[in-house]
Write a structure and sequence with these properties.
- The structure holds 2 protein chains of 2 kinds.
- Chain A is of the alpha/beta class.
- Chain A has a domain of 65 residues.
- Helix content of chain A is 35%, strand content 17%.
- In chain A, β9 and β10 form a beta hairpin.
- The longest helix of chain A is centred in the middle third of the chain and has 20 residues.
- Chain B folds into 3 domains: 75 residues, no CATH class; 59 residues; 271 residues, ABC transporter involved in vitamin B12 uptake, BtuC.
- Helix content of chain B is 69%, strand content 3%.
- In chain B, strands 1-2 form a two-stranded antiparallel ribbon. A two-stranded antiparallel sheet of chain B has the order 3-4.
Amino acid sequence: MSDASSSVNDAILQVEHLSMKFGGLVAIGDLSFQARRGEITALIGPNGAGKTTVFNCITGFYKPSEGMITLSRRDGSSFLLERLPNHEIPARAKVARTFQNIRLFSGMTLLENLLVAQHNKLMKASGYTVLGLFGYSGYRTASAESIDLARHWLEKADLVDRADDPAGDLPYGAQRRLEIARAMCTGPELLCLDEPAAGLNPKESMALNALLMDIKDNTGTSILLIEHDMAVVMQISDHVVVLEYGRKISDGSPHAVRTDPRVIAAYLGVEDEDVETVLTEVGDEDVIEQLDTGPDSAHGPDSSSSYFAGPVTDTVGHTEGERVTVSKGASKAGQVDARSGAAARPASPAEAKPTEKPSAEKSSAAKPKTPGDSNRGGGNE
Amino acid sequence: MAVTASPERDIVATPMQRATREALYAGAIALGLFVLFIGLKTNQNISNELILEQRWGLLAIVVVLTMAGRFLYVAYGQPFLANQKIADVATGLLPESVATRFFRLPYFLAAIVTVAVLVFLAGPLDGLLGPGLAGYARFLRALAIIYALASVLFYFRTFIHAHFSALGITALALYPVIVVLVLALYGGSVAAGFQGSLKWVDNFGIQILIYVMLAWGLNIVVGLAGLLDLGYVAFYAVGAYAYALLGTHYGLSFWILLPAAGAMAAFWGVLLGFPVLRLRGDYLAIVTLAFGEIIRLVLINWREVTNGSAGISGIPKVTFFGLISFNVSDPNYIAKVFDIATSSAYYKIFLYYLILGLCLLTAFVTIRLRRMPVGRAWEALREDEIACRSLGINTTTTKLTAFATGAMFGGFAGSFFAARQGFVSPESFIFLESAIILAIVVLGGMGSLVGIAVAAMVMIGGTEVLRELDFLKQVFGPDFTPELYRMLLFGMAMVIVMLWKPRGFVGSREPTAFLKESRAVSGAFTKEGHG
């Protein structure tokens, strides 16, 4: 665990109080986390937790309702991503991304896909087309260099033999690798990968891990990834942020997150009955008597446990010591929070307030806030 | 174990039974379709009353023909086509293709002999056969010539396929020369050659090349960038009126106004581009369609400037960079400079080479741009706009450059059109023109220059050739006017081509860069774009 001040300096991406609402639907509520330079940060959470929405906010496909996303580049310049136009985020802030449902240029060859990724560089070299049209030599050099870079990444992705095939012709796993190679051709400082291991077999998954580690070690590109495959997450990530219903429920090293009961309850699909077991396991005897909390409403995403139920703090009581009803439906992590909160055990690994977790990983920049903060504008008006 | 099969399963329809059944269905459908179209005809009688004419005989003939066609296709056509795909067990080879069976050396020789006999004995035969049969003889001669030419093309097909562009450009460059030479030999004098070449060079050559150029320009917008533009003719109109107005009012030369017209059309392209940037697919198509109509209506109604529907006439002719003029009254008229006989064909031939040059410029720029980052960005935009944005491509400027570049070539073509006609009016810029240009692009295969050129030749040349169907009068009697049916034939031909090649003549795309070898990308992978 690094100390707070240095972690600010080497943070490449800082997300502060990010909220994203679609009408009355709160997809992300007051999320703050940071990704450190040169590390692989994983963003995990159950389906519908808002992970891809976070990505879309970071890469400019959505404009967040509230919050600040700061990207600091290696040369010291920093960008507020929520203010940049969509296409300038990759171009100026050097953030590249891949997509959950692969988005390749399927009718173009692999090489062309990687050349399109170097568009801005080549545009400049070709004098915005005018000089290039007349065969300007600087453009020809740049063009040759871009092909070399493309070849380099094709080799890394183990696709160089198929360089002249259409991208749509590749098998699924190779398309995933190509998408990463294409993103790397933009020369990013932060690479955002949306479920890169989805649909891969174990062998392909291993190859992907190797590719990601190689990117991290050799290019200095920091990686932020969304992943469901725990083998990938636990093996390669340095730092894990866990979301549930648009809120951060845990943040820390893979090991710390794995043993966090809230994560176990929320993410790893523990049944309600098992929550007791988990909490018993972590030695919380007091909590057990608080557990008879009405019907099993948080069992799966039924209507009341959706985003429409509003912020977790609305439905889960947030005053310490208060007995909590979860019947309006809330997250499993919320239940754990509530119970441990009711047990009034500040030393418990699970903190009472779901959006606030002043652990060492947490950026010191995050200012202390009252639970009311997270209620701002939330709820189902 | 007893096998109990239901009675239906025992019945396996033989092709004959199936064909009979399907023929009956087809007959019923044809009857339903044509009973009003063909069976009844409204007419005026001698006292100017509307009467209903019944043509049951004709209806019966059409229905029977439809049934016979369906029967033959199902009974013989389908099994034949199926057999074509079955390899011989012994040799492992597929049966000979239809084409190799159709084009054989003996048939070729027979065709040559037929042509020779019919050409050399034309005079005596005409006397022998009488005027009716002589018409058939000419028809037969035409068929034999077409067959012989097709055989030659078939024999050299691999060579032609490999060198298509070079051969095509050479053929286009030599076309007027060949036309003049052939007609001069036929007519017996050079003057007759020039005079006869007017129709071939102007109606076929220039007309087709104008559409080639327009379609190549639209290809940048639709084929490469995937933005469906139904109002392309607006830029054509802007170019034509730019030349017509500036040329008549200020007397500026074509060579100054050509770039000016291009720039003006490009400006309008950007102007159209801005509001429609957010639109995609059908919505984009509708707005561009509206833009095309707006331009036309402005041209009609802004009488003070455009002279309304009366149009602008007396547009100055193009000169050869001011050195040689094509106006008979000028001192530097071409016939005076070279001391040759006066003929209007020189101007047409000059215009032919001018539009050929403009076409080649369009092709050159398109090919160059495709290999540049902006061209790749256009194609990437067609494939996936969101992915483009995630790679830092400014999709706004990319779309605008596509609109502007396409519009610029439309403007060039427009100013050429005005110079060629000497007269422009809003009549020339109706929606049908946009539709034809778009049809050429789609028929040729979006993005493919060669395919589009061939499609323009087929579509524009085809409609012109269908004017020459006089021999059909021999078959259907002198009252028959074949010209009226050319659009029907044309529409049928388009339907057939799109069934046979759904991605157009050239469905594949050539990659713009390669590591080891350039392999064409099958049309199955490319997308059409969503606007």
